[in-house]
């Protein structure tokens, strides 16, 4: 999903319309920027690549190290019951496809704004444009589980196991923050500076996980052993993406407005309180961009120390 387009309003020339946008990075803001660039006879290579082109960038379960503990009880010579907890670090993160899309948006923002300034060369004497992308992985994913284990009689104690668990990511959420800033200096040496900030946060719901696996355990003494195990965890993955966006305007001069009115619609950039910028939409808070529901398969290969009491 994408937020609705902002309302149209007349620019300072009293004849050209523009629309209020909250960000250039996605949705209607990016579409308006590209439309004006096209109307100003700029090539498609100068357009911004919006975050939501086709679909929003996704985050997913991330492979990585885990740690855990388990307590078990023998029911008979071959059957054991156990319960435990596993912690996977940096559980939700971005793959190369997602980070590549964020980078494409970041880079194209710089290109689009620089091209826009150069297309108004008679109005802009200098332009500074920069954009950054800052990814952050989530906190750990905790899996609390119960297992039934069946062991063979061989010296190496081969075993198979099955069970269920409840998995949940805790702590910090996975997120990506894009920040774009541009400053246009006008012929009278007044200046306009605006900053566009978008943050996409990814959270997952608690999920019931089914566990199948097997391995071997070898005694070190009557009280201890080492254990090698492989487990397949099967369960739903419901990751929700929320978008926050907020434009800001620096008061770098008491006067200064850049009105790009050679097209209709046009764009307006302002450091004057009485002249509204196109980047003036209401800040977006916790907008649900998408919910990704799919079945996740995760392999866990582990080695551990066993202590008998």
Describe it:
With 309 residues, the chain is mainly beta. It has one domain. 12% of the residues lie in helices and 52% in strands. Strands 4, 5, 7, 8, 9, 10, 11, 12, 13 and 16 form a ten-stranded antiparallel sheet that branches. It has a two-stranded antiparallel sheet with strand order 1-2. The protein has a two-stranded antiparallel ribbon with strand order 3-6. The longest helix has 24 residues. The termini are far apart. The model has no long low-confidence stretch (mean pLDDT 88).
- How many alpha or pi helices? 2
Give unreliable regions as ranges. Answer: none
* Largest β-sheet summary: 10 strands, antiparallel
Order of helix and strand elements from N to C terminus: EEHEEEEHEEEEEEEEEE
Taken together, the total number of domains comes to 1
Approximate strand percentage: over 45%
Shape: rod-shaped
- What Rg is obtained from the alpha carbons, in whole angstroms? 28 Å
Kindly name the structural category: mainly beta
Tally of extended strands?
16
Q: Tell me, rounded to a whole number, the average pLDDT.
A: 88
